[in-house]
Structures are given as C-alpha cells and as structure tokens.
Amino acid sequence: MRRLYLFDTTLRDGEQSLGITLNVREKLEIAKQLATLGVDILEAGFPASSPGDFESVKIIGREVKGITVCGLTRCVKKDIDLCAEALKEAEDPRIHTGIAVSPIHMEKKLRLKPEQVIQKAEEAVRHAKKYLNDVEFYAEDAFRSDYDFLAKIFERVIAAGATVVNIPDTVGYATPWEFGELVSYIKTNVPNIDRVKISVHCHNDLGMATANTLAGVMAGADQVEGTINGIGERAGNTALEEVIMAMYTQKNRYGIDLAVNPREIAATSRLVSSITGVPVPSHKAIVGTNAFMHASGIHQDGILKEKQTYEIIDPEIIGVPRNQIVLSARSGRHALKHRLEELGYKPEDSQMNTLYEEFLLLADKKQEIYDEDLHVLMGTGIPEQNGIKVKNISVATSGKQSATAAVTLEIQGTEITDAAIGNGPVDAVFKAIDRITGKEVRLEDYSIKSVSRGKEALGNATVKIFADGNYYVGKGVSTDVIDASAHAYADAISKLN
Ligand SMILES: CC(=O)SCCNC(=O)CCNC(=O)[C@H](O)C(C)(C)COP(=O)(O)OP(=O)(O)OC[C@H]1O[C@@H](n2cnc3c(N)ncnc32)[C@H](O)[C@@H]1OP(=O)(O)O
Ligand SMILES: CC(C)C(=O)C(=O)O
C-alpha cells in the first residue's frame, strides 16, 4: 500500500474565499475537527498577512497536537521570520514558502527575471531551514510554467533543503491527463526528487480540481492539498472529502492508504459550512444533503431490492446514518438520545432534560423533526450569543408602508428595549438593534435559507457586517425568519470588540 498524505488548507486557501473572515476561536474549532478527521498537515494561515492570522497560526500550533501545523509565506524573509515565530510552540511545524514560476507571473507580477526568481526561492528555503527542518516549496502557477524551468527551480530548492515540492495549478487551467503528465515529468526530470515528497494543489476554475488531483496521485504525487467542501479562492480548491472517498471506494484498485477517519467527514463538512457561512450545495458530491437520497421510482425500487444498485458509498461510512426512526412531538428522550448518538453526538444524561425541552418546543411547531433540525438543536447551526441576546421582537408592517420594529436585547445581563422604522421588517429590526447597541456598522450581506425540511422549516440567516475595518459574520436560526435575522445580526455585532 502506498501512503498518501492529506494537506488541508481550509483555514488558509479556504479562507481566501470571498466573504469569509474567521476569528481565532472559529479557526481553532475547525482545526480541532480537522485533527479529529485525521488530516496529516493543517495549513493554519498566512502569519504575515495580519495580526489575526498570526495569532490563529500561533494558537493552532500550540493547541492542536498530533498533526503537522503549517504556515504559508512568500519568498520574503520577513514573512518567514513571522511564520517561524507563529509556529514556535507547534509540535511538528512546517513552513510553506514559494514564489510564482510562470512567465506571465514572473514578468508582469513579480517583475523579476527567471534567474532572480530561482535565487529568491533558494534564499527563502535556506532561511526557513534556519528555523526548522520541514520546509515545503510551492511553485505558484506551475501548470502554466516552462517545465524545464520548473524542474530547475525544484532541483535548486531541493539542494537548499526543501522537504516537499508543491506543484500547484493555481488558476485551475489543467485537464487531468495534462496534469498527470506534468507530475510524471517532474518525477523523471528533477535530480534527487526521490528525496522529497511531491505535493499537488489544484484549483477548480474548470471544475476539474479533484480529477486533476487524482491524476497527480496516479502519476506519483505523495501529498494532496485541498479544503473541506472545496471552498477557496475564486471557484475553490480540490474538495478533500472527494479525494478521500475516491481513494476509499477505489482502495482495492489503487492500493492507496490514508490515515483519515471517513466517519468524521459529514461532521467536518457541517462545521466548516456553519462557521464560514458558506452553504454546501444540496447536490455536492459526498457531503450534499441529496448525495444519498433516491428520488425516482426506478432508483427507489433498485435500492429497496439491493442498495448497491444505486449506492457506491454507504452513507454511514462518512457519518451519515440511515434514518429509521421518525422523530416528532410524540417521541421520548430515548428516541431523541438514540438518534443524536447515531448522528455522532454524545449528549450527557445531565444535558438530556434541557435538550428534550428544546426539542419539544421545536417539535410542537413542526410535524417531523429532521436530522438538520437536530444539528441545529445541538448547536452546530446556532451560534453562541456572546454577550448580546435577543429577548423579544415585535414588528408591525402594512403592505407598501415602512415597517416598525420594537426589539429587546439583553446585553451583559441588562435588558434594553428600543424601536425603529425601516424599509421592511428586517431593516427595521436591524435599525432597532443599532440604536440599542450604539455600534456603527455597515450591512454588507444578508441571506436566509432553509436548513431543514417541512412547512415550518428552520430558517438560517447569515449576516455580514463591516465595522472597525473588519468584516464580521453572524448566524441565526429560527422557524421565524425575522427572529433568525435578528439573531444573526446580534451575533455579528457581538463579535465586535
Ligand atoms: C496563490 C496564492 O494563493 S498565494 C496566497 C495569497 N494570500 C494572500 O495574499 C494573503 C493575504 N495577503 C496579504 O495580507 C498581503 O497581500 C501581504 C501581507 C502578503 C503583502 O502585502 P503588501 O506588502 O502590501 O504587498 P501586495 O499584496 O500589495 O503586493 C504583493 C507583493 O509581493 C510580491 N510577491 C507576490 N508573491 C510573492 C512571492 N511568493 N514571493 C515574493 N514576493 C512575492 C509581489 O510582487 C508584490 O511585490 P511589490 O510590492 O514589490 O510589487
Ligand atoms: C500558495 C499556493 C500553494 C497556492 O495557493 C496556489 O498556487 O494556488
């Protein structure tokens, strides 16, 4: 069996998705779950990019053990110094440094001659090696580079001490057969390549990131880079869950071994989606809600006769249990606990009374309680209300007229009520919250979507605000859309210092 290393960059390239800004607490929570999933390397951020990113890499390095924690840098000494400083307390640190190698990037962006680029790359790797042994070198835009030049720069960084060479298709331009050929070319044309690991890092601009990554693996790559749910710059990165399950379902054919626990895939995907506010499309491979649903009669007939007629993956393998019990207001604590345990939660007996009360409140509003409702009940869909709690909302609206909202918030134990007029009920509620908190914020984005099924489905509101030079994302969940929106807005404001 050949061992394939999984390099997760959800917290670095994933966070480069438009609209995502995660704070240290959120990043740490995702990092811990990635360690539970069992990825080998976790890219925690780009320490030189901001004090917040520096802090995240530092705290993840300190707190998350049993895994390689990595930070990204340019081939710039200051970036490398900061990265090494952030990784000081990491058990198994790695610096990921690199520079662009394609003609267009070197000439137009870096404004450097190819030989100058090689020099910077060598110097950066040597500088990083002063701090620690494990240094990965990325050749940005490798797929559009001149392959002789690429082989030459890899040869020189390997001589300077790189332990991993990364071949990115930075702009997602490759097709699988071409990308496989590139990896083969590097394997056969770079002296001493067998001393280092080859990594592949693909983007999804043509929808081929996973296919290209697998072609790279077939051509001999030792490490694959990607993100959970495929989030990332522009159209995103290779979705790690797709690579994991492609390997898992093809194990006997490809003989590739991974250290991950596939049962954690669904929980990791949910957590990343919930914290980043980026929904997973229902038809998304592996982790979409429809990925294991069979809708048409001929398929349902086949499944009832033999599951494998239409199912290549047993959903339980990725932590999605088959649902056999229908939960409703008539269900008791045993059924609720049983289903929660099937979904991977470990509710304490002491928690069950409160959970059951919350469950009944919801069940009274809905005929059937779905798994999505239970995830919300267990908190993976409801954010903590740090400091600001929405206690009461009352809205008056009459057709085309403006709406009026009266809102009561509890801030650090004190209840405050105020009212405002807005263009519609949600606007009026947000304005009332602004009056109470006295914060100057600009609403950047607002969306509401259903997170469960049924007529009284839970609405999940996501609000993005801009204040003090930063973006803050808040989430709120309720069967009432105005209530969900108010919670999301209060959640975002509670993240301001
Ligand atoms: C392919 C990728 O995904 S790479 C990772 C992308 N991630 C990020 O960009 C993280 C967020 N970025 C940032 O916080 C900032 O851009 C910083 C801190 C990195 C740099 O900020 P600034 O110093 O203000 O530079 P700015 O971003 O405007 O320009 C980039 C500079 O770095 C140079 N540069 C870009 N990549 C590299 C590299 N890998 N190695 C060396 N220099 C590089 C550019 O040529 C440019 O140099 P110039 O100022 O001499 O023209
Ligand atoms: C920094 C590198 C690995 C990258 O993200 C890319 O080239 O896409």
Give the helices and strands, then pairings:
Elements: E1 2-3, E2 5-8, H1 24-37, E3 41-45, H2 51-63, E4 68-74, H3 77-86, E5 92-100, H4 103-110, H5 114-131, E6 135-140, H6 147-160, E7 164-169, H7 176-189, E8 197-202, H8 209-218, E9 223-226, H9 240-249, H10 251-254, E10 256-257, H11 265-276, H12 297-305, H13 333-342, H14 349-365, H15 371-377, E11 388-396, E12 403-411, E13 414-422, H16 425-437, E14 442-450, E15 459-467, E16 470-478, H17 481-494
Parallel strand pairs: 1-10, 2-3, 2-9, 3-4, 4-5, 5-6, 6-7, 7-8, 8-9
Antiparallel strand pairs: 11-12, 12-13, 14-15, 15-16
Explain this structure to me?
Keywords: Amino-acid biosynthesis, Branched-chain amino acid biosynthesis, Cytoplasm, Leucine biosynthesis, Manganese, Metal-binding, Transferase. The chain is 40% helix and 21% strand. The protein has 497 residues and is an alpha/beta fold. It folds into three domains: 2-276, TIM Barrel (Alpha-Beta Barrel); 297-377, no CATH class; 388-494, Alpha-isopropylmalate synthase LeuA, regulatory domain (Double Stranded RNA Binding Domain, 2-Layer Sandwich), CATH 3.30.160.270. The protein has an eight-stranded parallel barrel with strand order 2-3-4-5-6-7-8-9, surrounded by eight helices. Strands 11-12-13 form a three-stranded antiparallel β-sheet. Helix 2 crosses helix 3. It binds acetyl coenzyme *A (ACO) and 3-methyl-2-oxobutanoic acid (KIV). Acetyl coenzyme *A (ACO) binds next to strand 5 and helix 4.
